Amino acid sequence: MAHDFETPVADLLRVGDGFDLSALDRRSTPGWKHGKKAAKKALTERGERLSDLQERLFAEGRTGGTRSVLLILQGLDTAGKGGIVRHVLGMVDPQGVDLASFGVPTPEEEKHHHLWRIRRALPKPGQIGVFDRSHYEQVLVVKVEGLEPAETTATRYDELVRFDQKTVAADTTVIKVALMVSHGEQGERLAERLDRHDKHWKYNPSDLATRSKWDEYQAAYQQIFERTSTDEAPWYVVPADRKWYARLAVTQLLLDALESLDLTWPEADFDVEEQRRLLTATARSNAKPAKATKGAKKKKKKKK
Amino acid sequence: MAHDFETPVADLLRVGDGFDLSALDRRSTPGWKHGKKAAKKALTERGERLSDLQERLFAEGRTGGTRSVLLILQGLDTAGKGGIVRHVLGMVDPQGVDLASFGVPTPEEEKHHHLWRIRRALPKPGQIGVFDRSHYEQVLVVKVEGLEPAETTATRYDELVRFDQKTVAADTTVIKVALMVSHGEQGERLAERLDRHDKHWKYNPSDLATRSKWDEYQAAYQQIFERTSTDEAPWYVVPADRKWYARLAVTQLLLDALESLDLTWPEADFDVEEQRRLLTATARSNAKPAKATKGAKKKKKKKK
To answer: Which of A5, A106, A173, A197 has the highest CB neighbour count under 10 A?
Structure first.
């Protein structure tokens, strides 16, 4: 690869002891000194590797494997969650991506515990699950808007940690990403949605009500980072004023997670030679014979 | 666009009166005379338009619209259904694609009518649903393998037609695509799966059992085309020995369906000027002000 992060980006973005959200420069590009153009090129390069590893994970899931990956995306309006889905997950086979968006609970969801809909959406073996918002809204919108008693909310942090631990114990690698835009940048992005006719549908007057509670939301995020970032399922806080940086950083986090799984192609659970013989026997005289050579040729090519 | 189909490909591939599957040349490329390289270029070009229309459909669904699109993919093993998902649907935003694969029914699915799991997987408003195999397996594998009494199977055709009619009546454009490979090409593709270690997971010894019933499956397809291709939900039979042709043809069918919806960007259901004023009032002195100009500039650019 032409360009790389100077320091492993996961180490730079992972929430550690004494993390202070208010000190985060949201226009910064931790670990990346090569600018925007190189970042876009690096994204495409990483996309190919990501796609390869995703297929291996998918293949593993199809052959009895139990592992999966879950990317949790949090962030205020305009933080770029949708852009991550489009530009990062859009680089891999749609068959291997299981996307769930969590908005205001439906009447049916309201009847259940808040984790009910989350549990149902966890990725199946072999899948890369993506949560666009997540169970963490319980300590964001629910908390800031006072939708449940404060005493109940206070118990949620431990509940969320336990939930993530169970998910990890069930062979899912959990990557929790918070995309953090600045107040100024959010203002610009909302203004753009108002200026462009093709973006009006993305705008909701209630976005301004949420924006007016900016400080409360920042405090809620700070508390999430302090109380729910664990070794098994750490939070990564991504400065998101520069979309190209956020996309590259999340791609790298996803790639790191997949690389750490040491994914190999599953072994055949059948006798390859026997199947070759059986297949050859199916050839019809009036059709082109099944040639073993074509595949062999392609295999060679791929190995180069 | 640089190159185009000579005749609308939908007209060439749509099943009409007297359709005879046995006469189909599966290496042919109906309507396309420009070869493989131009086809790949044309695919990328169409991908951009597809992506634009998909976003409009998605926006419509988000703002109260009820329309959706359903692409049904049928075909024997190795026909290229997965490749369509990857290379055609992979060109649009994953958020707008709702993919469902129908394999052997699970124990829970077995307890219900065969259309139960299908109904649950129908695309929501604004989505492009994709079925990798579908309710039509009821008159394919279920029929050929004799998994239900022949008298019951005989009633399925009308049931399937009614089901599709209901789906169309619920504002879903239904595109039924059958990818048809030749016996020889299937042999080559299975051989490749045996030859390549990274493709073993795609191979199943039972594929040969299915292949041994080639003629029965072809007859079952012929009957499907005769009995379930309707004006509201016609079948398109796509010669699939050349993957690049099948991908381009299906892209065109999808594009035609989306174009026919006359998708416009939803009108704002709020007072844009008022929201601009309210947004400007949220600016903080210590941050960059929300500039209305940036969006306006981008809008201009987009219009060029």
So the answer is: A173
* pLDDT digits 0-9 by tens, B247-264: 999 999 999 999 999 999
Question: Helix H segments across chain A?
Answer: 9-13, 35-62, 81-87, 107-110, 116-120, 141-144, 150-169, 183-195, 206-211, 214-228, 243-259, 272-280, 292-303
Q: Would you tell me the crossing angle of helices A214-228 and A150-169 to the nearest 10 degrees?
A: 50
Amino acid at B200: H
Angle of helix A243-259 versus helix A35-62 axis, rounded to 10: 30
ipTM of the assembly? 0.91
Three-class SS of residue A25? coil
Alpha helices per DSSP H over chain B: 9-13, 35-62, 81-87, 107-110, 116-120, 141-144, 150-169, 183-195, 206-211, 214-228, 243-259, 272-280, 292-303
Smallest Cβ–Cβ distance between A201 and the set B59, B187, B296 belongs to B59
d(Cα B96, Cα A127) in Å, to the nearest integer?
18
Following DSSP, what letter does each residue of B24-55 receive, concatenated?
--TT--TT--SHHHHHHHHHHHHHHHHHHHHH
Say what the pTM is.
Answer: 0.92
Contact A99 B94 (CB under 8 A): yes
Tokens of A181: 């835009």
Q: Is A69 helix (H, G, I), strand (E, B) or coil?
A: strand
A238 phi, psi to nearest 5 deg: -110, 120
From B50, B276, B30, B79, select the one nearest B188 (Cα to Cα): B79
CA distance linking residue A142 with residue A2, whole number of Å: 44
Among A191, A196, A290, beta carbon nearest to B190: A290
CA distance A85 to A158: 28
Chain B CB contacts of A288 below 8 Å: 182, 184-185, 187-188
Q: Which of A7, A10, A71 is nearest to A249 (CA)?
A: A10
| Residues present in chain A in total | 304
Tens-place pLDDT, residues B62-108: 999 999 999 999 999 999 999 999 999 999 999 999 999 999 999 99
Cβ contacts of A206 on chain B, cutoff 8 Å? none
Query: Both tokens of residue B258?
Result: 């989306």
The Cα A120–Cα A129 span in angstroms is 12
Q: How many CB pairs under 8 A join A and B?
A: 194
Contact between A223 and A19 under an 8 Å Cβ cutoff? The reply is no
**Which residue, B86, B139, B281, B66, is CA-closest to A96?**
B86
Smallest CA–CA separation between A181 and chain B, in Å?
A: 12
- Apex CA A216: angle with CA A214 and CA A222, to 5°? 105
CB contact under 8 A, B292 and A195: yes
Question: 3-state class of B138 per DSSP?
Answer: helix
